[in-house]
Write the structure tokens for this entry.
Amino acid sequence: MINTNIYNYINVLDKAADAANTRNEILANNIANVDTPDYKRKDVSFENYLEHALIGGEILDERIADVNSHLSDFGGIIYTDNSSLSYRLDGNNVDIDTENAYLAENQIRYNALVEQIGQEFARYKTVLTGV
């Protein structure tokens, strides 16, 4: 995390990219355990916490600065999804098609976040160099 106000957006985007990376690992683990008896799928929740923190107020810069001031509190929360539910007789609740769709969605999200971080740095470079 870079400790200056100019990087508030980048810090938040970086934290979101970290959560997307963690989610990618969890989804890959779910896919790897598709045939493991009694395995329950896991997921990561991050977007809801960030969205809740950004709701309210009129000025986005102020909300981002507030989130940035306690960004360490915004780690992805790993949870077991529908732990009492099972779609199969072996007790496993992983659906391979759903997991693959979530994995593809998460890859797109991660790539978009990385691209946005790059664009933010490009803006700063333009301001500093005039090019």
About this structure: The first helix runs from residue 8 to 32.
